[in-house]
Design a protein that fits this description.
Order of helices and strands: EEEHEEHEHHHEHEEE
Domain ABC transporter: 4-227
Subcellular location: Cell membrane
Bound molecules: adenosine-5'-diphosphate
Number of strands: 10
Radius of gyration: 18 Å
Shape: globular
Protein name: Thiol reductant ABC exporter subunit CydC
């Protein structure tokens, strides 16, 4: 089955017009899909539905073929995890910030080996080890997002969620940050939510959301005429 399948999703906030009005999308294992759209399109509502923090009026969300209503909320949030908006940083090096993170921060050999392997994979993909010795409190917003992604990957989520990962940094940093995040997530099932189309050449599919509906979908080169 698809890693994530959303079928005809309708979500309404109170008695307003639906924030999501029949949205369907599917992510094959290992693919990356970007949800793009202007403010108010329904992107946050879609993430909230995935995290089960809003009620679904109708439609289904399936994770590897299983309806997410069958999971406990906490369970859903470890299966689908990603960049949180305000990553917490310990007063320690980035390396130690990573050592202290993860679903099993215990000190047994296996847990340590698993964390080390994921960290090696991560630094191999990003060349990030040059900065791992830096103090977490002094690094830039872009480095914090890289830290947050590395931490999220320690959970080895079935679907990685990236919510406007380049929102809090300036335009120039944003391009480099997004490129790094996309390099580091190649081959990993990812849902990226963003209001900008720029820098999305690498993703497998772009889904354009407007007024709670999918108005276009396809690879980047097919959508370059989007305003
Ligand atoms: P986006 O993330 O693309 O900016 P949202 O999902 O935040 O879009 O919003 C979709 C629509 O739902 C908008 O019309 C917005 O005003 C409305 N909306 C979002 N959250 C709430 C809420 N908590 N209560 C009422 N309306 C909301
Ligand atoms: P740039 O990064 O060069 O500014 P973007 O592709 O991010 O260009 O888009 C510029 C503006 O168009 C942004 O305000 C963005 O919110 C809006 N935009 C981008 N894609 C869409 C879309 N699919 N539908 C509606 N608005 C969009």
């Amino acid at each position: 089955p698809p890693a994530l399948e959303i079928e005809d999703l309708v979500v309404r906030h109170g008695d307003r017009a639906p924030a999501l009005n029949g949205v369907s999308l599917s992510i094959a294992p290992g693919d990356r899909v970007a949800i793009v759209g202007p403010s108010g399109a329904g992107k946050s509502t879609l993430l909230a539905a995935l995290m089960r923090t809003v009620d679904i009026e109708s439609g289904n969300i399936m994770l590897n073929g299983v309806d997410i209503r069958r999971f406990a909320s906490d369970d859903v949030r470890t299966r689908m995890t990603g960049l949180i908006q305000d990553p917490y940083v310990f007063q320690a090096t980035l390396r130690d910030n990573l050592r202290l993170a993860g679903p099993d921060a215990s000190d047994d050999d296996l847990a340590r080996a698993v964390r080390q392997a994921r960290l090696d994979d991560w630094t191999g993909r990003t060349g990030w080890d040059t900065t791992l010795g830096e103090d977490g409190r002094t690094v830039s917003g872009g480095q914090l997002q890289r830290l947050a992604l590395a931490r999220a990957l320690l959970y080895d989520p079935q679907v990685l969620l990236l919510d406007e990962p380049a929102e809090a940094v300036d335009e120039e940093t944003a391009d480099a940050l997004l490129a790094d995040l996309l390099d580091a997530t190649r081959g990993r099932t990812t849902l990226l939510v963003t209001h900008r189309l720029r820098g999305l050449e690498q993703v497998d599919e772009i889904v354009v959301l407007e007024d709670g509906r999918v108005v276009q979908r396809g690879p980047h080169h097919a959508l370059v005429s989007v305003p």
